């Protein structure tokens, strides 16, 4: 049975995150909405900490906001927590943060490797986000193994790549995540494809339209017949 991913678009609402070519909160939401769709097509259950430009806690308090993200993951019984971010500080490349030695190391490495052909890697690919490292709230505060992925730098030459490939990251990240979470091959429904449902609806509409035309023609015939009979009766009476 596929596992549950808690997907966390970094920042949001009152908190724009870092600001480079765009605001980080918009970048993270775009990537996460695409990624959610791509994973759901593979049968993976995705719980989001936010799906619009809001703070998950509903408050403008960073600690409450981060705690709310952890709580959403724990309440969903997530098997993996993934926080998506955009970096700043003028570097280039992808990097990930995890609790060292935990289960997240494998998937974090896979995610960085999936992005590397486009983004390159920033320093040591997978770094310590735990208590002895950057002590990141979502890494330390979630029951599930957690990864914080910095896709690339919004304030460097990375930004051109991030903008150009914005809607590719969902698919790119979905493949390794799906393997990790026990998803299936993607179910792709191309747009404007005939499915039993669309065919049935089309036939129904056609039948209704045809029925209306037949009824209209019958009514016209009936009226014609009536007037002919009336004329005959009048003629016979006369
Ligand atoms: Zn961030």
Notable characteristics:
238 residues; 7 helices; 6 strands; binds zinc ion
In words, what does this structure look like?
- Helix 1 crosses helix 6 (169-181).
- The chain has 238 residues and is α/β, with parallel strands linked by helices.
- The protein has a six-stranded mixed β-sheet, with helices on both faces.
- The protein contains seven helices and six strands.
- Strand 1, helix 1 (24-40) and strand 2 (45-48) form a beta-alpha-beta unit.
- It folds into two domains: 4-181, Zn-dependent exopeptidases (Aminopeptidase, 3-Layer(aba) Sandwich); 193-238.
- The chain starts with a strand and ends with a helix.
- Zinc ion binds at residues 10-11, 17, 24, 85.
**How many distinct folded domains?**
2
Structural class: alpha/beta
Q: CATH H level of the largest domain: which superfamily?
A: Zn-dependent exopeptidases
Number of helices: 7
End-to-end CA span: 88 Å
- CATH topology of the largest domain, which one? Aminopeptidase
Order of adjacent strands in the largest pleated sheet: 2-1-3-6-4-5
Q: Which molecules are bound besides the chains? A: zinc ion
Instruction: Write down the overall mean pLDDT.
Output: 92
């Amino acid at each position: 049975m596929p596992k549950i991913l808690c997907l966390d678009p970094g920042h949001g609402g009152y908190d724009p995150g870092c600001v480079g070519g765009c605001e980080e909160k918009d970048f993270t939401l775009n990537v996460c909405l695409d990624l959610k769709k791509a994973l759901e097509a593979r049968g993976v259950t995705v719980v989001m900490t936010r799906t619009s430009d809001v703070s998950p806690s509903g408050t403008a308090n960073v600690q409450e906001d981060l705690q709310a993200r952890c709580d959403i993951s724990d309440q969903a019984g997530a098997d993996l927590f993934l926080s998506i971010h955009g970096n700043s500080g003028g570097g280039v490349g992808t990097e990930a943060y995890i609790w060292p030695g935990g289960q997240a190391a494998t998937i974090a490495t896979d995610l960085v490797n999936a992005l590397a052909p486009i983004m390159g890697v920033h320093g040591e690919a997978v770094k310590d986000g735990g208590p002895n490292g950057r002590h990141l709230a979502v890494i330390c505060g979630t029951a599930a193994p957690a990864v914080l992925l910095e896709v690339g730098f919004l304030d460097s030459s990375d930004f051109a790549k991030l903008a150009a490939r914005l809607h590719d990251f969902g698919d790119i990240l979905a493949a390794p995540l799906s393997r990790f979470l026990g998803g299936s091959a993607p179910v792709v429904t191309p747009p404007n494809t005939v499915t039993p449902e669309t065919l049935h609806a089309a036939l129904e509409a056609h039948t209704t339209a045809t029925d209306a035309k037949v009824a209209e023609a019958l009514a016209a015939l009936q009226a014609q017949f009536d007037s002919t009979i009336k004329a005959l009766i009048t003629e016979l009476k006369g």
